[in-house]
Amino acid sequence: MKKNGGDPVKPFIRARTLLASLAFSAMLVPIAQAQSTNDLLNDQKTPGDVLVYGMGYNAQRYSPLTKINKSNVKRMVPMWGYSMADNRGAEGFPVVHDGVIYVTTHNSTNAVDALSGKQLWRVEHEYPPETTRVVCCGIVNRGAAIYEGKIIRALLNNQMVALDAKTGKEVWKVSSPEPATIKNGYAMTGAPLVVNGMVITGMAGAEFSARGFLEAYDANTGKHLWRTYTVPAPGEPGSETWPGDTALTGGGSSWVTGSYDPELDLVFWGISNPAPWNPRARKGDNLYTNSIWAIRPKTGERVWYYQTSPNDPFDYDAVQTPVVATIPVQGKPRKVVMQANRNGFLYVLDAKDGKLLAGNKYGKVNWADGIDMTTGRPKFADPYYGAHEGRLVTVWPSLSGVTNWFHMAYSPKTNHLYINTIDIGMTYQAEDPPKLTPGAPSGGGSIKRTAVYNDPKVRGFLKAVDPMTGKSKWEVPYASPNWSSTLVTGSNLVFTGVMTGEFQALDADTGKVLWSFKTPSGILAQPITWERNGKQYVTVLSGLGALYAERLGDPNLVNTLPGVSLWTFGLFDK
């Protein structure tokens, strides 16, 4: 049929030609792959995949999955185990995408079929022998990031590498620019955070007199984009809090991964202790160490900071990943950043401007009596003053903190934080401080410390904590402190690992242990949960190592052997 003299065949031919042209163009122009910026933004809403460290940019470690619940968790069994061929210790966060788990050790990156445990590929990374000299607290890696078909991770010798997710083939590798070298005390152990196509990462090195920083790389090319130092150089704002040139070896590591809020476009990151440990060498607040930072991901500009432990004598790192959530504050919903700090205080800050909303003890603390809600500063007590004067004091908590690097979970259903805590104090005395140079040990010699206990038979607790008060709804004691992160689900289950090897599920409402499975080694890692083909699974690494197990002489760990393995659990079908 003709209309207005047109040829009815030509539009059909033109349409076919256009489709053919589009198809040919698609062969020439790469199609947007999964793990795009939008995929990462929606990570917590798509429980089939686990794409972002912390199970979502807000780092809540919460999953809405409910197929494994209180009534059936007793039927959970191992689906498979996979040897990682490593004895150093496992602290990693597994990434899951499209039925594949990507998991790291200090010297390997592995792709494993999520349902069978079959290895798909493995890449081993080599380091110069001197690398381990500047890794103070465990030769480990905490995980990789995924973005547009690439697995991106940091290496101990301050390199970033991107691997093809399908094959493991290297896509790019770059070195962190000077002065980030082993010689100068730097190392990288944390998992990177990809935000809007930028790979943001931190560094370790405060224990070797390095000057801390955060930096970013282009996720597609590896190009270095920016670096923001955590300790000001002489003449910069904040340098007045450092005597002489002490800031140049001032520490302030950033070795644990941060979180991100897309609405505010702010990345939140924890910054560690100043160097040296001995505070008598660096009188002043030592900005911007022991702080929670909010930065612009595009530029690295610091928007706000909150310092938790000014002029810290006790190695109270503030590196714990800040958790972002909207919670009730004085009866109204408010977007906040929460951090259970190593110093024993639980902080709740306004996410937009860093205003202190709550600061309460959540364990035994005696170095400060509380937090001044007007100034935000600690109300220092005698052990703090005594440490600066060189007196022998007994202080709580110990350098391990009330919690350490491992992560808490937050449930929007219960409005509680699930925190593994440590119940250990120490005697402490700071003698005359040493003179530091970059790369030299910043602790040790001039500090004398000995552990003290409330009860040697109970060295830690898993707690359900109210974020605004620091008070526990329940506490479960453990003979050794749990050095594992927690995970909470929509069915009100809390998953965590035990240093002696048990992987456990607890009732989030009561703390009752509902299920336990003994893995071959101790668990220091980060559990995740995901679903595939309508079934829910839980995955965690087992593998004893790192600071506490290697150096504190815990008698409970004598019969717990090293050896890293990856485990996935699911429900036994009747």
Would you give an account of this structure?
With 574 residues, the chain is mainly beta. The protein has a single domain (32-571), classed as Quinoprotein alcohol dehydrogenase-like superfamily (Methanol Dehydrogenase, Chain A), CATH 2.140.10. Helices cover 7% and strands 36% of the residues. The chain has 4 helices and 38 strands. The strands form 10 sheets. It has a 5-stranded mixed beta sheet with strand order 1-32-33-34-35, with no helix packed on it. It has a 4-stranded antiparallel beta sheet with strand order 2-38-37-36, with no helix packed on it. Strands 3-4-5-6 form a 4-stranded antiparallel beta sheet, with no helix packed on it. A hairpin with a 5-residue loop joins strand 9 and strand 10 (170-175).
Name a few traits of the molecule:
574 residues; mainly beta; Methanol Dehydrogenase, Chain A; 4-stranded antiparallel β-sheet; 38 strands; 36% strand; globular
CATH level 1 name: Mainly Beta
Can you tell me the residue ranges where pLDDT is under 50 for at least 5 consecutive residues? 1-32
Q: What order do the strands of the largest sheet run in, or round the barrel if closed?
A: 1-32-33-34-35
In which range does the helix fraction lie? under 10%
- Mean pLDDT across the residues is 92
What would you say the CATH architecture is?
Answer: 8 Propeller
The best one-word shape is globular
Q: What fold name goes in the CATH topology slot?
A: Methanol Dehydrogenase, Chain A
Report the biggest beta sheet as strand number plus sense, adding barrel if it closes.
Answer: 5 strands, mixed
Distance between the termini: 64 Å
CATH superfamily, called what?
Quinoprotein alcohol dehydrogenase-like superfamily
**Roughly how many Å is the radius of gyration?**
24 Å
Indicate the proportion of strand residues. 35-45%
Helix- and strand-based class? mainly beta
Domain count, please report it.
Answer: 1
How many β-strand runs?
Answer: 38
Q: Give the helix tally.
A: 4
